[in-house]
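Standup notes
- HV: blocked on the assembly model, inputs below
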Amino acid sequence: MKHYDVLFIHPSAVMSSPQFVVMPMGMISLMNQVKDYQVKAVNVGLELSLDKNFDMKKFLKSLEFDVVGIDLHWHEHSYTSLEIAHMCKEINENCLVVLGGATASYFAKEILQSFEYVDVVVSGEAEEALPLLVEKKEFSCIPNVAYREDGYIKKPPAKPPSSLDNFDFSTIVNLHHWEEYLKCSIHAYSKTRFWHDFWLCTGRGCIYDCSYCGGGKSAQKKIFGRENLLFRSVECVVKDLAYLQNMGVHIVCPSLDFVLAGEKYWKNLFTTMKKEGIRMGMYLEVFQLPGREFVEAFASACDPRFSTIVITVLSGSETVRRSNGKYFSNHDYFKCIESVEGYNINHVPYFATGLPFETEETFKKTMHMTEKLLSEFHPMTVFCTPLRLDPGSPMFEHPDHYGVIKHYKTFTDYYNRCRKRAKHLPYDYTGYHTRLLPGKKIMGMQHQWDTLMKDRPVISQYPLHFV
Amino acid sequence: MTIMTYARTAILLPPLTFLEDAPLVTLTSHVIEKNVLVTYPISLFTREDMGKMNWLGFLYAFLFTGKDGKKVAQISYPLCFDQSHQWEIFERLFEEVEELASAFKASRIVYEGYNNVKKPLFKPYSAVTFGNTVNAAFLDFVKAKGFTQTDVNYCYEVEWSPHHTCDVNLYTISDFHHRRGHYLELCRASPSFSQLFDAESVAALPPHSIERYFKREWVIFTESEKGKCCFRWFPQSIFAKEMTREAKIARILFTAPETVFESVLETLNYLHAQGKPRVQIADIPENLIDDLEKMGASPVHETVYMVYQCSNG
């Protein structure tokens, strides 16, 4: 039986089928932080995509492992991360079960109180903590580690690393079926997708506090102790891009909007990419509207055919949009996508239903804006989804300010939500409603938008092979 | 054992730097029919221990139903990254195409090759969305495999000079959906467009990202007593900034062949007025060559249509 010092597990959001297959970017750096040990990582959703009969228990029984690191970054994994933790302990009672990620960090105390099979929660960024855990250092000497001691939960204040340049965010070969992972969308592996992509950590933190986001400025401070935005150096990012290009990656998806790093940074980045012969597609989620000069520089350094700028428009109403953290007008948005299309770059608008301050009246503006996009522009696709209440988001922390009535408050609430979903029971999708919109109305608006799109399918496939 | 022993194939693009002659290929270039993918970019490669990829070859294969109702597998864009194993690489890629063609029950495999290339080609090289590339070695390869030439047409370059206007009405259509509907009608009617498709369902789709290249001024319609034509052209400045005077007509659709030459003349006038006096025109049938040469056009290349009859055919 093969022995591993560390086994990493990225759960699927349900045990029996692939959901939320893409891993948090920190998983990669953590694997590489302990690369001198015997390390293996398994992505349960990917394994289920490749083999629908994949049996996690059987898989665990086929290995020996000392430490198991399970990610609980997104709350969507609240049930399965804990189920897998339980399974690991049942199979190997001597292993050290470690949970980490944003959701685990936020609810560290509650998790340790309620789930005895979790030994440790890394509450904060884990790159410095993990090697020390593997070395079996005293928990009290390890930064960002929450643990039990004498019937109490110890949770030191989170302290993030001051630089990310010493971490390796791109070497992925320790992941089981890593090559297939490069062909995964959020939901599954796709054999027929004809490009490889890779989510690359380019920095951490944020300067914005969008209402719905659990990774914004104040959440970063509360969960990770991160006060400022931190970008990796241009040299490190370019080195990773060169490595990924050699690995056959076509599209890189950066974790942060380069606009936030400032003009000097992105000009240097794009110039260095060209100098180093890096020509890849880029899937960039911008946090506000990019300026024309940025779009031009982006188009000159990245391959426009395989590049996408994702703009979170949120609402057709400028007032609602601004109240939720996006500060641009409809006029400026349309000017921006005109310029993006002028450089032959793909673009994707994101709308949301259930936004704080949204009403049925303001939602009509979202519908109109969607219609205008579909008839006058060429978005690669258009998204609109109901929000889900993110722990740590401004909506979660200050519900009164946003007119939000929270249905989920504790980790157990999220755990139960995911458990019900996994067992195919009815569950509360959004976890909140607003004073202006009951839950049913939110879903009704979503249905209205879906109906609009049903008659005008977007887009992805085009039935003609010839121009 | 050679590198070919370890070579494997995948549905995968090559590094994007190698797709220079496929300017229209995008993230959404794949085509699905009845939930089945019918676009296969095939890469041949090996990987080193730490994952580094060594690319050996690439081609695009795609499957469609021709206007004769028969199923067709088409090859475009073959690339070879290791000249020392060129023939073996082509063999491996062709084996994949044969498998696809067989699974699709294709009656024939077709390839558009370029012969007598006299000067650099403007983009797109072909009217195949996925692009094509000049590859004389692959043309030799398909001949050796038993492909036979069934047709040839030409690409000529013209520098605009004043000429008589003709009795042809040239127009563009501002409304996107109307423009597309009109274009699709001509695609259906024209013998130069080989794919069978359901015009109504295509016309009902919202603008696709590929249709960023379908602007009003880039789709020219002509009409005379003899029939209708359409010219789809691309300003070269969208592919190379410095090429401000150049244009490529990649697609000529027509309802009657005798309308084409006069319509070409009118289209050249239009392009000149758009600041594009230097034009490469592809898709030209043999009977127009004399007229074009008389007006000073020079040959760029020939396109030869190579066909391989499958056992299903």
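- HV (later): unblocked. The two ends of chain B are 37 Å apart (CA to CA). The first strand of chain B starts at residue 8 and ends at 11.
- Next: hand off to the docking folks.
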